[in-house]
Design a protein that fits this description.
Blueprint: H1 2-27, H2 36-42, H3 44-59, H4 64-135, H5 139-175, H6 177-216, H7 226-233, H8 239-251, H9 265-276, H10 289-302, H11 313-320, H12 325-337, H13 341-358, H14 361-364, H15 368-375, H16 388-408, H17 410-413, E1 471-478, E2 481-489
Antiparallel strand pairs: 1-2
Helix pairs in contact: 1-4, 3-4, 4-5, 4-6, 8-10, 8-13, 9-10, 11-12, 11-16, 15-16
């Protein structure tokens, strides 16, 4: 009874081992039993790698996609090698032993069980014939009794030998059952090791590929942090700022309402895309200065951090709130001087251009005040929640009070001359050099207020020191939303809770 139950369980072990072997073989991507080279060649990862590298070759080194396909195809080939080695190990250490168990070892034991049953029947038949001959009164039959007894003894001996062999094989199977169970653990361990090696191969390849991509790729300038764009492009002035300024110097300085009149959406989108690609094909945009001005505003507005920085927002406000006009300018200069180097350089470049634009205000209607109204909210805003239009409306009064005097007194804030064609990649504009708009301005900057003799020098008073009582009346665009500002003297502008009317 015990042997029968054991044989039944052994048959069940054979069945489940056979099914597991079959399913595991179906998981393999290479051809079972073939040599290394053939297995590697037939892997889907290998054919993918070949297709990628062939595609890279067809596109050529001039194509970023082609370059990426080539180097990533090499990485896929390394993964294919790891997979091929993994599957060969699975076949050797797990599939072959499982197949041996299910198709050889257990079937041999079961065959012995059947052989024993046959030998037992042979023994029973020989014994029956012997007993019949021994009891028979027939002399002929009695004479055969001795030979029949020998036959019965031999049959019994065969039964005993087979039974001993069967018992030995069954005991051997029982003793190795833990080893058979170990195959399934080995499968998981092999898979874990394969994935670790594959991951290691990817982690070794990806940084190198990313470095190559970064060195090859012209990443968009719009929406990218100023420092990152300048470092990546090896520039001093952001490409969109320089390109737009150079185009406006050529064709936009006399354009009425520059930065105030919205450009066509499709033309603006096309120009932004061209600047993102660092293309030099910008000739068609010279004839549309409003699109160029719109692209410059968009670039400033889409910076993750404003050109005048989040970190110095409070300092700018405090400086603009100083009541004395001279001291207010001094405070603004101190704040400006504390800007990060890259931000300060780009602000200087832009302000010098805006001051140049304001010199033609009789024609283009863009006074420092009007420029500050339409462009200021794109240069400085608070790091708070809400839409850009809401933030601009909440801070526009403060921003105008900051930007307007900087533009008015650009040559005092930034006395050095600016070569607008800083990169040398643009044709110089045909406009003549612009004279200093404030030849009589002679303010002392902080740090130079004390002379060599130790006496204190007070900044000279002249007609530029007192902020004029200008009237603001404009319809301007912030974040592509129209905001109407009522006519109010700038010296009496409302407090920060000023609400713009959409």
């Amino acid at each position: 009874r015990h042997d029968i139950l054991y044989i039944q369980r052994m048959e069940l072990v054979r069945l489940v081992s056979h099914n597991t072997h079959k399913r595991l073989v179906s998981c393999l991507q290479s051809q079972l039993g073939t040599d290394t080279e053939k297995r590697h060649k037939k892997l889907p990862l290998t054919t993918l790698s070949q297709a990628m590298q062939e595609g890279g070759g067809q596109l050529g080194d001039e194509s970023l996609i082609g370059k990426m396909m080539d180097v990533c195809g090499e990485a896929e080939s390394r993964l294919a090698t790891e997979l091929m080695q993994h599957e060969m190990m699975i076949e050797r250490d797990i599939l072959d032993p499982l197949n041996q168990l299910a198709e050889v070892e257990i079937p041999n034991i079961l065959k012995q069980r059947k052989q024993l049953a046959k030998l037992v029947l042979d023994y029973d038949s020989a014994r029956t014939r012997y007993y019949q001959a021994a009891k028979s009164n027939n002399q002929a039959m009695a004479a055969k009794a001795d030979s029949l007894k020998d036959e019965m003894d031999e049959a019994l001996n065969k039964v005993e030998i087979c039974k001993d062999q069967l018992s030995a094989d069954m005991y051997n199977f029982a003793s190795k059952e833990g080893e058979y169970a170990r195959y399934y653990v080995m499968l998981l361990e092999a898979q874990a090791d394969y994935h670790r090696r594959s991951l290691a191969a990817l982690e070794a390849a990806i940084p190198t590929i990313q470095m190559q991509q970064d060195s090859w790729m012209e990443k968009p300038a719009f929406g990218t942090a100023l420092e990152e764009h300048l470092k990546r492009s090896n520039r001093e002035i952001a490409l969109p700022i320089e390109a737009c300024v150079m185009m406006l110097l050529e064709t936009g300085m006399k354009e009425e309402g520059l930065f105030r009149i919205a450009a066509g959406a499709s033309k603006l989108k096309k120009l932004k895309a061209a600047l993102d690609c660092s293309t030099s094909q910008l000739e068609e945009f010279y004839s549309d200065p409003h699109a160029v001005a719109g692209a410059l505003k968009s670039y400033l507005r889409e910076l993750p951090e404003p050109l005048m920085t989040f970190g110095m927002y409070d300092e700018w406000l405090q400086a603009s709130n100083v009541s004395d006009p001279d001291k207010r300018l001094q405070a603004l200069w101190v704040t400006c001087d504390c800007l990060p180097k890259t931000h300060k350089a780009n602000l200087r470049y832009l302000v010098k251009f805006l001051a140049k634009l304001a010199q033609d205000s009789e024609v283009n209607k863009m006074t420092p005040s009007n420029i500050a109204i339409v462009l200021g909210p794109n240069l400085l805003w608070a790091k708070t929640e809400g839409t850009l239009a809401e933030m601009a409306a909440a801070t526009s009064v403060h921003v105008v009070a900051i930007i307007e005097p900087i533009i008015q007194h650009a040559d005092w804030f930034f006395p050095e001359d600016v070569d607008f064609n800083v990169s040398g990649m643009f044709a110089m504009p045909s406009h003549p050099a612009t004279p200093d708009p404030e030849p009589g301005l002679d303010r002392k900057r902080p740090g130079s207020l004390v002379g060599q003799d130790g006496d204190s020098h007070t900044p000279r008073k002249d007609r530029y020191l007192s902020r004029p009582n200008l009237t603001v009346s404009a319809l301007y665009v912030v974040a592509d939303e129209s905001i109407t500002v009522t006519e109010t003297p700038t010296e009496d502008l409302p407090s920060p809770d000023f609400k713009a009317v959409p």
